[in-house]
Sequence to fold (400 residues):
Amino acid sequence: MKNRNNTWTIIRKEFARFFRDRQLVFTTVIMPGLLIYLIYSLMGVGIRNMESQGKQDLVTVRVENMPASMEPVLTLPESNVLLVQQPINQGDIDALQDKDLNDMLIRFPAGFDSLVANYSPQSGLPAPNIEIYYNSANNAVNGVYYALDATLTAYENSQANLFDVNRADGEEQSFDQASDDQMIGDILSKLLPMLIIMMLFSGTMAIAPSAIAGEKERGTIATLLVTPLRRNELALGKIVSLSSIALLSGISSFIGIALSLPNMIAASDESIDIPFNYTPNDYIALLLVILASVLVMASAVSLLSALAKDVKNAGTMITPFMLVVMLAGLLPMFQTGTADNLAIYLIPFYNAIEVMADVFAHSMRWTPVLITLVSDIAYTGIAVWGLTRMFNSEKVMFSK
Fold:
């Protein structure tokens, strides 16, 4: 009986310790479920927005030699498809290399119905071939292409495979007019912004807690505060030094990704070359935005670190913030194109992610870059002011 009472005492003691620590309760009980809800809700909203945006863009499908038998087959339920019957020339096909052109071309052989009726698979001759030309880098066009391809393939199967769809008669023949540059740019715009922002954040998180919360824990912050150094100079020095070190960590990680990307992409498609046809303006914009986002990142982490009692407490406070940044990094995966609303470039971290996605997709515009830079510098200034106020507060700096 006595042993049971001792066990119950230990249980009550641990429960009391846990439930009295509000931060521990939040990070252990509330935060996991909340983050899972936010992540999956955001992914659902992103997928719905991507689908609805693709359906809003009108895609013109130009058809040459439309046979009477295929008219009902090509009538898709999508309201954003406009079928136009007209001849197709090589110039029309070459024009599809512009990924912003919402066009698709379908070429039927002349006398398609007669060719299908007289075709015998046992003859050993190639079947009548339907050619569909498109650009897979255009999300709206790509969605319509997959719908048409599925419809034609199902109809082909019902007709005992008496015709083919996009049969390449030569190694150089390609129906997808997207260049390697466009395809790789689309992949990089969805992948690299999240990786870069997380690398920068991991570098910041590795050093910021010990730079402020660690000094509070060790008691060395008091020595700094009694020096003639002004508080705003101390705050700015902390933020700039943390940003510089975090940037070095991010650059190192980015170089590793850049060197490994060709091997990663070649593993999925050996026919794709890895072009990095970016202009000096792209590199300048990318560098400026990374610098600005690191400043904001170091500022935010410094503020949280200053509020913390020790390094462990700082890590607990920074973790939810890190997950929010990770959520923002996922958003480009559900984007269908360049964002038109310039107000989103006022949102810290998300603005940098959007600009990086535009750069990698070869869609960089200077107006969003400038808005991002100005807003991030303003947020850094506010953070320096806030950190200065914290350094002036004995309650914050010497809390236990």
Remarks:
- The longest helix spans residues 180-218.
- Strands lie at 59-64, 81-85, 103-107, 129-133, 164-165.
- The CA atoms of residues 46 and 387 lie 35 Å apart.
- The mean pLDDT is 77.
